[in-house]
Amino acid sequence: xxxxxxxxxxxxxxxxxxxxxxxxxxxxxxxxxxxxxxxxxxxxxxxxxxxxxxxxxxxxxxxxxxxxxxxxxxxxxxxxxxxxxxxxxxxxxxxxxxxxxxxxxxxxxxxxxxxxxxxxxxxxxxxxxxxxxxxxxxxxxxxxxxxxxxxxxxxxxxxxxxxxxxxxxxxxxxxxxxxxxxxxxxxxxxxxxxxxxxxxxxxxxxxxxxxxxxxxxxxxxxxxxxxxxxxxxxxxxxxxxxxxxxxxxxxxxxxxxxxxxxxxxxxxxxxxxxxxxxxxxxxxxxxxxxxxxxxxxxxxxxxxxxxxxxxxxxxxxxxxxxxxxxxxxxxxxxxxxxxxxxxxxxxxxxxxxxxxxxxxxxxxxxxxxxxxxxxxxxxxxxxxxxxxxxxxxxxxxxxxxxxxxxxxxxxxxxxxxxxxxxxxxxxxxxxxxxxxx
Length: 437
Known about the structure:
Elements: H1 5-46, E1 50-53, E2 58-61, H2 67-73, H3 81-91, H4 97-103, H5 118-128, E3 142-145, E4 148-152, E5 168-172, E6 175-178, H6 184-194, H7 199-203, E7 205-209, H8 215-220, E8 231-235, H9 264-273, H10 281-289, E9 316-317, E10 321-322, E11 353-359, E12 363-365, H11 376-383, E13 391-395, E14 415-418, E15 426-427, E16 431-433
Parallel strand pairs: 11-15
Antiparallel strand pairs: 1-2, 2-12, 3-6, 4-5, 6-16, 7-8, 9-10, 11-13, 13-14
């Protein structure tokens, strides 16, 4: 028996070695799978990941292409209330529970109903003090957009992850669209008539670009959006106080600037009060393109034809320095720059982002069911207008857009945010069916 003992020990040792080898191979396989998954994800994020399904007539764009561009200006996921909550909790984790409670007020679940309408009260005080004339209302002119066909999207997407393509033909009925973005003056009329409280007021804060804040406010900022540190959730920022609580659109003569710090829900509420609605994404794009095909901008292919600036965009180096070569460093009045296309629309790109009705979707129908051109009916169904979706589409870009960081001021471009998010560079305009008075 004794002479067989070494053999048994050898066999036992061999079994142990085999088990270790199997475990090592399994771990290596897991690492390899993770590496492949990461590499595939990087490939998607770095380039085009559009897939065409010829049988269903759909196109699917996945991933987060141009990730650096997406994060740099903060015009999508990095700039929403959910992400801000995470950043607040992470950056404030060293604070006491009492300090956290006073500084973290965000997410839909934590939105609180106010016992009063403080902005309404402020407006009333301005009227009593003679700072505002309640009768000085400027009706919004609307432009007629005739029925017709156009090419929606593009086969040459600049940011594929935004599902800018593929190009598809769409036929729309006639409609009307506000000539300009809704202004602070017009929104004030709405608030005075309804005592409406925006979601930014209910949350107690909204997103502001640090460069627009006073030095005093900047010194008080303790929380910034990690992915885009030039954005910060600012307590007291809302449509009446767009640059924080020490700013004021009435006292600073900005009533004719675009209303901002409005959520998708706020925009819909205003449109309903005005007897209108938010434009569908297809309508917005049709109006922006006019009758032009294959162009980047409402007026044509060149950004500054004959050296003339046609839109309020970022010049210089983002985010440190905006030279203001177009005449404005931040937002501009709603009637600035004049008509951008044949329909007479103003600021249909640039100035501030604009909410549209559609839920965010990266899967587009190329044709109507059974073939043929897409029409209003298919566009509305695809847009899931009445779907209580979290993510909603916004169009047009803003004064913070720069070709090297947020090339989303093209007529084909699109972006998104959560319906309860608001910021200093996001507004809206209204649409109306022509059979409605």
